[in-house]
Amino acid sequence: MTETATTTQDPQRLRALERANQVRLARADLKRRIAAGKVPAASIIMDSPWEASSWSVGDLLMSQRRWGSTRCQKFLRSLDIAETKQIGTLTHRQRVALASRLDARARGDSGLCQPRGMELVGA
Question: Which CATH number fits domain 10-104: 2.60.120.10, 1.10.8.50, 3.40.50.2300, 1.25.40.10?
Fold first, then answer.
């Protein structure tokens, strides 16, 4: 009886291992492209490709150049998003806020809005 249960679960276990390996390989390729600057992290957050849907937001951010755990924690704390939150489970509001803040950082902006009444008057 135990043999039958083990025998029928082997193909399922092998399929799960194959799927996990596919995800690992695709995610490694995605990490390399993000680190090289070929793919912006903001686009991954907005598009949520299959290989990144179960990826944590913290791991995605740390795959960028010059992003360590401290920068990642501070950045996500300002948005009230957990580091371990999976990309596929982000709400639309969280995706938009995260992607726009990342885009602002990439442009060199602080990504923070001016308080009301404090608009800059330029010449």
Answer: 1.10.8.50
Residue for token pair 């990504």: 111
pLDDT, tens only, 20-60: 999 999 999 999 999 999 999 999 999 999 999 999 999 99
Rounded to the nearest 10 degrees, how much is the dihedral formed by the CA atoms of 95, 97, 98, 101? 150
What's the pTM? Answer: 0.75
Indicate the SS3 state at residue 108. coil
3-state SS, residue 31:
helix
Strand partners, 56: 86
Q: How many helices (H) and strands (E) does the chain have?
A: 5, 0
